[in-house]
């Protein structure tokens, strides 16, 4: 594993400035730059907690899906409820408290407020950045507990490059991907296609039951063109089709004494269709002291469900965003060299939601926002970042959010201390307000936004020239937390709390052997003192990566242990909660270079065939074996 990629001091995270740049702009991914603001920040000057996963690490570890890539990242809880539905939570927050960006475009649905990760492959992903802590001052709603930003691959060299791969394995899994990229004098084009199909396993664990299949296809196209030396334009376009099977749960009002009896055999299946796109134009001043970017982006998402206990249903949500971003150097230097920068963001958004159970009534929200951010590299190793944002909402009260972070390099020591605080908010999802499922759920139009205040303290330690160690303590308080109650959703009065500790480290034992690991402790409770479900108390990941086969390949061993995770029977009377059994999962992967352009891959997931569940009643797959080959030219 690339130790630099795990180092918080070298982490790269995408925020609006780079998020919009990722809509097609050129970013040197090899530079040690963090972009957790409205303009890039060097990692050594950054005061918040971030992690990054690179394409190289994904290949070495044998990771093929986004949800598996995120498992083991500090304070990131990944929970699968069947083959087609995977949620992610950060620092004890809810799934809709995490903003997901794909090449700078917001991917969260307008209905449920979160992005369903299931089946999203990583073959065309260059890096995944995880920014932990409140980010509403930069991103607005949905960024209460963190941001996950995904950057797809770009042409790395002039001319045409192409390649792809195939993989086959257990449960009739078959996957294939291909790409063509072209870099020319003043721009680039990047095209990729990816498909993954699997029959899955029977989630109900009942004899003779059907399996929960998951088929997903994705097409991605990005481009950039330099009109002049100061003006650049670009676009992104992404289309995804998914078809997956699922089980029903026990009828509302029932209770299962064991998690094995919670799911009911069902032929239920869902089609999901997603389209993401953006257009942008960026202009630099002749002096290089300011930059102006105009962008428009949109997301359309449709779901068609059938053959389940509630009969056929459909929903559609859309999101449109119009943004202006201005970056200004305050000290007379160029933006890239400036020690003091001021950034301005103007934004207008529109969301819509339509569902068959609501009589095909269309619900709409509109908002505008203005944000300011200061980034300063002060004397004697002290760095400061401060942001302030005001959102004008047509449905809820207007919201003002802020963040502040400081980092300090201790003189003469390879130690950097940092601290951050922030205020964030998230509006109720449209499903929570207006959704309807016969016999089990009716929305609550009187819900209020959730508001969060968070603090963190941390330190980064250099371990000579061999590795790094990062530790962080955090606290997050949420007012008006929204949770299900009976057949609706309600605001829980008072302050719900989460506290935690994060550790992340990497160390090069030998020139050919790297060790890395992460540990997180999470204590999350509602204002009533009830434990928060699907947020493990303890999660530990250890990885060993070795060069092998006389330098022609790699071997990687991942061990992940989870304990203190709770689950809930959401449709049972009183929604009983129980602690799930602890589990340890071991994954093994290897690569072998057949030629300079072709590589053989093999991996075994859940090597010890552990029987475990991340969510009450939904069992993970047992041992699976996969073999593949990939090539690039």
Descriptive labels:
5% helix, disordered N terminus, single chain, mainly beta, 22-stranded antiparallel barrel, globular
Describe this structure in words.
By secondary structure, this protein is mainly β. Helices cover 5% and strands 57% of the residues. It has 6 helices and 39 strands.
Reconstruct the topology from this structure.
Layout lengths: L2 H4 L9 H6 L11 E2 L6 E2 L6 E6 H7 L4 H5 L5 E5 L5 E5 L7 E5 L2 E2 L18 E8 L3 H4 L6 E7 L6 E11 L3 E12 L2 E12 L15 E13 L4 E15 L2 E2 L13 E2 L4 E16 L5 E17 L6 E17 L10 E16 L6 E16 L4 E12 L5 E11 L5 E12 L3 H5 L1 E2 L3 E2 L7 E14 L3 E19 L2 E23 L2 E13 L12 E11 L4 E11 L2 E3 L8 E3 L3 E11 L4 E8 L7 E3 L2 E2 L4 E9 L1
Parallel strand pairs: 6-9
Antiparallel strand pairs: 1-2, 3-8, 4-5, 6-7, 8-9, 10-11, 10-39, 11-12, 12-13, 13-14, 14-17, 15-16, 17-18, 18-19, 19-20, 20-21, 21-22, 22-23, 23-24, 24-27, 25-26, 27-28, 28-29, 29-30, 30-31, 31-32, 32-35, 33-34, 35-36, 36-39, 37-38
Shape: globular
Number of helical segments with 4 or more residues: 6
Strand percent estimate:
over 45%
Q: Helicity, in percent?
A: under 10%
Query: Sheet with the most strands?
Result: 22 strands, antiparallel, barrel
Distance between the termini: 24 Å
Mean pLDDT: 89
